[in-house]
Design brief:
The complex is a heterodimer of chains A (305) and B (253).
Chain A: E1 3-14, E2 17-28, E3 32-36, H1 43-51, E4 58-63, E5 66-67, H2 72-77, E6 79-82, H3 94-104, H4 111-120, H5 136-148, E7 154-158, H6 166-181, E8 185-189, H7 193-199, E9 202-207, E10 210-216, H8 217-223, E11 227-233, E12 249-251, E13 257-261, H9 269-279, E14 284-291, H10 294-304
Parallel strand pairs in A: 3-8, 3-9, 6-7, 7-8
Antiparallel strand pairs in A: 1-2, 1-4, 4-5, 9-10, 11-13, 11-14, 12-13
Chain B: H1 3-19, H2 21-43, H3 55-86, H4 89-93, H5 99-125, H6 136-160, H7 164-180, H8 193-199, H9 203-216, H10 223-247
Helix pairs in contact in B: 1-5, 2-3, 2-5, 3-5, 3-6, 3-7, 3-9, 5-6, 6-9, 6-10, 9-10
The chains are: A alpha/beta (305), B mainly alpha (253).
């Protein structure tokens, strides 16, 4: 896949605060790229710089080889943006609001296209209603409809499912997947790691204005994968004095479960522990092993930075 | 050029005008009618003619200018401030819209609204006084130039303002006094010599005087000076807006 957005050594300084610090990143055509990071990490600033809402202090950003500062019309034409907040003119009707978004991109009104989007997002019945009468979830969907009104090639979604219920979240995920199938490149920021795990092809982690990691999601999961094994005991244990101290092994608070983190199966570590339990007459009822999630990997990376 | 974007912004703003038609049109008409009843009929009947013009007729250009200027400023300032306030300005800033296209859309709509209001006030004045417009073309040019220029000024205020108080502070504390003291309701010939000289420092005086010339063919200062004054103010506003968009002042971080 060819690179569609190229970010080279971009920094953004607000007064004394460096919101972005020498960020370099490539976004590939047709992928879903999830940008993860804690609050204030620089996710929204990076998106704002690409979309033209703020100007980088240094560095270059190119969209399909067009510079975002010198050829802003060419770059912005390709981009649709769904912001984090719900910034809408409440007095306007749903349909007119979408028509306004489309018109800003130099396109004439297309009732068919706008109605199709509104139907997809279950907003068609509300098309003539004023925006301030919509629920929070509907406003969130309307922002997506507005971003799609000019048929963008690149879609930025800045925390698109923040504050929406589970059902709507699934609908938005489906819409994102449908857009991807249509060839749209999607850049997603989210606090819901499950969302990135579900949707993303690649994941980037940003912290304190710096990109600390960019990887294919599957490669990331496998590289940083750690298994956690839980051994449920028949009787409560007070301590682990029967075995050598091992950082990987701990006893849960109720004393009924042994937690083994990052146990290496190749060296038969689990077998040795099970043997040790038997030798000490400690019976157990269940052994359960789980893979750690992207959330665990994200927290590990951010905390150890 | 993205002409469609300018048209879209223009239509969007005019739709807001239509939604608030009562507040936008009826209120100025009622207020103007009160001006004519109080100043034209009650007080005006006690005042002799000014330069051969009855007082009721004399105040018509001043009243139109008063509304034209204040409505242009208010409409343009609100037009750009409101999307900033609710955050929806992000759409315009992230769209392929140049500063010229955005200005044409917002300022064009504000100027159109105030021109409509100005014409409504003119029609209302016909119910109270009879007047023949001596130079109708010049009158039309003055209305359009004033509406555009003060809409540009209002646009600057709307970008500059960071809260509702700031949005109204310049129109209330600066523009309204300048309009009232710029000869809207009197001729500066009626003032003592010192205050006549002070009035010459008021830029609004030149506009009202020129506009009045288009009605009656007489004014305190040459018409050319009035036209130069309005064009100069327009040039200053355009230059300030160009700087605002170039630097992203209070629009882009």
């Amino acid at each position: 896949m060819k690179s569609q957005i190229s970010i080279e050594n971009v920094s953004k300084v607000f007064g004394r605060h460096k919101a972005l610090n020498n960020v370099s990143l490539e976004i590939k055509e047709g992928e879903i790229f999830a940008l993860l990071g804690p609050n204030g990490a620089g996710k929204t600033t990076l998106i704002s710089a690409i979309c033209g809402l703020c100007r980088q202090s240094s560095g270059n950003i190119k969209v399909n080889n067009f510079d975002t500062l010198t050829h802003y019309k060419e770059t912005r034409n390709q981009i649709g943006l769904v912001p984090q907040e719900l910034p809408l003119d409440g007095f306007e009707s749903v349909y007119n609001s979408c028509q306004f978004s489309r018109g800003l991109f130099g396109l004439k009104d297309s009732r068919d296209h706008i109605e199709k989007i509104l139907k997809t997002l279950s907003l068609f019945d509300k098309r003539d209603e004023q925006i301030f009468g919509l629920s929070g979830g509907m406003k969130r969907r309307l922002l997506i409809a507005k971003a799609l009104a000019h048929e963008p090639k690149i879609l930025f979604l800045d925390e698109p499912t923040a504050g929406v219920d589970v059902s709507l979240r699934r609908d938005i995920w489906k819409l994102i997947e449908d857009q991807k199938k249509m060839g749209v490149t999607i850049i997603l920021t989210t606090h819901y790691i499950e969302e990135a795990e579900q949707l993303a092809d690649r994941v980037g982690i940003i912290n304190s204005g710096e990109i600390i990691l960019v990887k294919e999601k599957t490669a990331l999961m496998s590289e940083f994968s750690k298994k956690t094994t839980f051994i449920r005991l028949s009787k409560k244990l007070k301590n682990l004095s029967f075995m050598k101290k091992n950082k990987k092994i701990s006893l849960t608070e109720n004393g009924m479960t042994l937690k083994l983190v990052g146990i290496n199966n190749r060296s038969n570590e689990l077998q040795s522990i099970v043997n040790l339990l038997s030798q000490n007459g400690i019976a157990f009822t269940e052994i359960n092993t789980v893979d750690n999630s992207l959330e665990d990997i994200f927290l590990d990376l951010v905390e150890t930075q | 050029m993205n002409i469609q974007a300018a048209i879209t912004i223009y239509k969007f703003e005019m739709a807001r005008f239509r939604r608030t038609i009562f507040q936008s049109l009826v209120a100025p008409i009622i207020t103007t009618s009160l001006y004519f009843v109080v100043f034209g009929a009650a007080i005006g009947s006690k005042i002799e003619t000014i330069n051969g013009v009855s007082y009721g007729s004399f105040i018509v250009p001043g009243l139109i200018m008063l509304y034209l200027m204040t409505e242009s400023i208010n409409n343009a300032a609100f037009g750009i401030y409101f999307p900033k306030f609710v955050g929806s300005i992000f759409e315009v800033l992230s769209a392929p819209v140049s500063s010229l296209e955005a200005t044409v859309g917002y300022v064009g709509a504000a100027a159109s609204k105030s021109t409509i209001i100005g014409l409504m006030i003119f029609l209302t004045s016909n119910l109270f006084v009879n007047h023949d417009i001596k130079y109708p073309l010049v009158m039309a040019i003055f209305i359009i130039l004033t509406a555009i220029t003060f809409s540009l000024f209002g646009f600057i205020i709307g970008i500059w303002a960071q809260n509702w108080e700031k949005l109204s502070i310049i129109p209330t504390l600066l523009v309204t006094p300048l309009v009232f003291l710029g000869g809207s309701f009197y001729s500066i010939d009626m003032l003592p010599e010192f205050w006549q000289k002070v009035s010459l420092l008021n830029p609004v005086f030149y506009l009202i005087s020129g506009f009045r010339w288009s009605f009656f063919g007489t004014s305190e200062i040459p018409i050319a000076l009035s036209i130069v004054a309005i064009l100069s103010f327009m040039a200053i506003c355009l230059a300030v807006i160009a700087i605002i968009f170039k630097t992203g002042y209070r629009l882009r971080t």
